[in-house]
Request: fold
Amino acid sequence: MSVFTIRQAHEELESVWKFQKHAQLSGVRMKGFCASSAEKEPEVTDGLQLDLKHSVPRVEVEGNSAYFDVKLQIEALADKDPAKMLFHVDCCFELTYTLAPDYLPTEGDLEAFQKGNAVFHSWPYMREFVQNATQRMGLSVPPIPLLRLEPLPPAGAGENTPVQAPPAAARRRAPRRVKPAEKS
Reply:
């Protein structure tokens, strides 16, 4: 199964973790879209090539909210041939995060979060939109690939060096023990 991947340095992931520890996704709104398909579905003999482009042109903090405009673009080419464009979809999503009352994100926190997580959080909405739009265009398109976030290997490490996951303490909270209720 093919996937799209966004890679970030470990230092950026620490800023991302700090932001997401103090923020909750509270809204996703499609601000705009444009979709087009080929006049006639081209014959596909050598597979479908999907190209993804993304950007985050707006990051804004206002009061206890952070706003990210995420632009995503997917283009499908039959047989990796630009003359055989199957479809092209552009979407812009506004993501709203409610921030903890005592938290003011730094520029570094916002920049790191926008590079990966803001795009990652909008991805399921893009996949669903593309799947529905291409179906309405009369195209038989396989499911759009998943998007993954991965840490970059440390500087100086070879390209095939395995990437270590963050310590378990950073990934999840310890389980909470609940005392059984007393019998009356």
